[in-house]
Structure formats: structure tokens, C-alpha cells
Design brief:
134 residues, 2 strands, mainly alpha, single chain, 5 helices, 7% strand
Amino acid sequence: RLYQIPFEMPDCEDESQTHTLHLIGDFSAPAEFFVTLGVFSFLYSMAALVLYLRFHSLYAENKKLPFADFCVTLCFAFFWLVAAAAWGKGLSDVKAATRPSSLISAMAVCHGADTVCNAGATPAMGLANISVVR
């Protein structure tokens, strides 16, 4: 939810005043999908573990139960792949929205003929990149 993050932009006419701007974009849906899938996967794993350990005879006798377990596990694996791809796409969208050059181009004060805007430091995205690789 980048739109909730404010940042200050100096006013070139009166340097003592600043304008508050907000970033653009809401890329929270992929992260929420990833976390929700993780929670459901954990709950299903715990339920399956209880079934395997506590009710082993029921699992061994019923031939449809292992197949249903396989199908649910296959669905979770597919959705995990989709969630990981969505997480990666969300990260690339956040990077594009917070790139210093795109932020400078969005500032009206930087469009003047005599104005030179400098972004300063480039943000470090190493930990965010590692979160996608996991």
C-alpha cells in the first residue's frame, strides 16, 4: 500500500516550505495471497500430520483418503507456485514505483528548465530480492 507512504518534496520558490506527496500504487494483494496460502498450508499440514499419526488405520484402510490427500497437496503445490510468481511480480512493481528516476519524474517541481533534481542514494532491495528467492 504505497499510497499510504508520504514523502517531503522541497518547494524551489520558498525553500523553507515543503510539499507532502504520496507514492502511487497498492501492491499488497500478492503478499496477502502468499501469506494466506502459507497459513492454509501450515494448517493443512498439521491436520494431515494428526491424520497420519493418530488415525493411521483409517488412512490405511480407506483407499480414497490417500488420493484425496494427494489431490489437495497437488493443489497446494500449484497455488504455491502461483503465489511465488505473484510475490515476484509484486516486488518488481514496487521496485518500479519506488525507482528514484520515476519518483523524480513524478515531481512537478523537477520539470523546470533551470531545475536539477538528484535522487541521492539508490534504495537497497537485497532483502526484498531474497524474499522472492525463498
